[in-house]
Amino acid sequence: MIVLRNANAPFAVSELPSPAITEEPTTDPFAGDGHGGAPEKKPIEEFSYDQNRANHNDHQKDNIDDESRGKTFRIQVSAKHLMHASRVFKVSLTGGGKENITFCQQGSVEMTTEGWNLEAFLILLKIIHGQAHDLPQKLSLEMLGKVTVLPDFYGCQRPVRVLADMMWIRSIMDKADIPNEYTRDIKL
User: Fold this and answer.
1) Mean per-residue pLDDT for 78-106?
2) What 3-state DSSP class applies to 12?
3) What are the residue ranges of helices labelled H in the chain?
4) Model pTM?
5) Dihedral angle computed from the Cα positions of residues 123, 125, 131 and 132, in that order, rounded to the nearest 10 degrees
6) I need a surface site. Which of 2, 22, 48, 188 has the fewest CB within 10 A?
7) Class assignment of domain 1-10+70-178?
């Protein structure tokens, strides 16, 4: 079991200055908190990931990111698949650490990670578990960036590289809208 905490934390935050956005202050006494102040922030309801959501368009994916930001998700995985694909998971599950001891004693273990984008993390896990048929055919540049940092962190570049080269990078390179000036997209 992998526990993903603080899902969908901000990714590749740009150090480039963004254009100034100005808002006119509201004088409407009924706006916001009822006292002319800022709008009241309400907690978001519990979110559970549905694999069918992966087929929605990018706007809906952004809403998923917003809804699940900061949430914790429990994802059932195969230890054998993780150990075979990733040297980081292999060391965690076969080394002398607490995960290995728990795994040997109980036959299962909970490993915690945090800050990854939920959709990107699930794409990586599908690759590791040999579920290429469930992968999206195309990824946005943003999502490709979110997916490709994971193999570097977990030491499982080989299985991801083939799919990234064959499917996702080629589809982005085929587009005519490749950035031609230094922007956040170029950094991704």
Assistant:
1) 86
2) coil
3) 58-68, 79-85, 87-94, 98-106, 118-128, 141-154, 157-163, 170-173, 184-187
4) 0.63
5) 40
6) 22
7) alpha beta
